[in-house]
Design goal:
The complex is a heterodimer of chains A (114) and B (113). Chain A has no helices and eleven strands. With 114 residues, chain A is mainly β. In chain A, strands 2, 4, 5, 6, 9, 10 and 11 form a seven-stranded mixed β-sheet that branches. Chain A has a four-stranded antiparallel β-sheet with strand order 1-3-8-7, with no helix packed on it. The N and C termini of chain A lie far apart (33 Å). The relative contact order of chain A is 0.34. Chain B has 113 residues and is mainly beta. In chain B, 0% of the residues lie in helices and 55% in strands. Chain B contains no helices and twelve strands. The chains are: A mainly beta (114), B mainly beta (113). At the A-B interface, strand 4, strand 5 and strand 10 of A face strand 6, strand 10 and strand 11 of B.
């Protein structure tokens, strides 16, 4: 299976701890996106990379959140000093660098902050 | 900025009955429209998309959606549903000059025998 993969699939942490999620996009996809989905809502955009460059960040991405894509391949999303409101599904998607190409989503990482 | 409204949060339907999921959007620029589906315990998958051309678009499993610019709608329909169509369906908008997707809140379709 060469789809988008995300690890871990589930994470339970205590408030105040730091967590890091990983996303491996479909190979050769230059664009990578992070979204967050809370219960009963559709996914909301967090940030977007073209290769290793982070080109856009949502206002939802507070300074406790940081995302990287150091070599233009996999990406990490770190949340520092987690809060209960950070509990959500974190989704990663990727797409080729060609116009209106479809975004392919990974299975997500479900975060629960106690 | 774009916004998407899915008018029904839950749609129960009997097998082989028709179903319509309503979606309205607002945007100050031209848009591209999508329906994504999330089956139980699976990731989001593209169901169909409207980019340009014919306003009626179809999926491989019998769904269709029609782009109506004057009513800013992109309703999804299927004339006869199967148990396997049980899933959550998201209407999605992308502005013509942007990469990020804007999702509706989703409609859960439950098909009963």
């Amino acid at each position: 299976d060469t789809g988008v993969s995300q690890n871990p699939r589930h994470k339970i942490t205590k408030r105040g701890q730091n967590v890091t999620f990983r996303c491996d996009p479909i190979s050769e996809h230059n664009r990578l996106y992070w979204y967050r989905q809370t219960l009963g809502q559709g996914p909301e955009f967090l940030t977007y990379f073209q290769n290793e460059a982070q080109l856009e960040k949502s206002r939802l991405l507070s300074d406790r959140f940081s995302a990287e894509r150091p070599k233009g391949s996999f990406s990490t999303l770190e949340i520092q000093r987690t809060e209960q409101g950070d509990s959500a599904m974190y989704l990663c998607a990727s797409s080729p660098d060609r116009g209106l190409e479809t975004q392919y989503f990974g299975p997500g990482t479900r975060l629960l902050v106690l | 900025a774009q916004s998407v409204t899915q008018l029904d949060s839950q749609v129960p339907v009997f097998e082989e009955a028709p179903v319509e999921l309503r979606c309205n959007y607002s945007s100050s620029v031209s848009v591209y429209l999508f329906w994504y589906v999330q089956y139980p315990n699976q990731g989001l998958q593209l169901l169909l998309k409207y980019l340009s051309g014919s306003t009626l678009v179809e999926s491989i499993n019998g769904f269709e959606a029609e782009f109506n610019k004057s009513q800013t709608s992109f309703h999804l329909r299927k004339p006869s549903v199967h148990i396997s169509d049980t899933a959550e369906y998201f209407c999605v908008v992308r502005a013509g000059n942007d990469y990020k997707l804007s999702f509706g809140a989703g409609t859960t379709v439950t098909v009963r025998a």
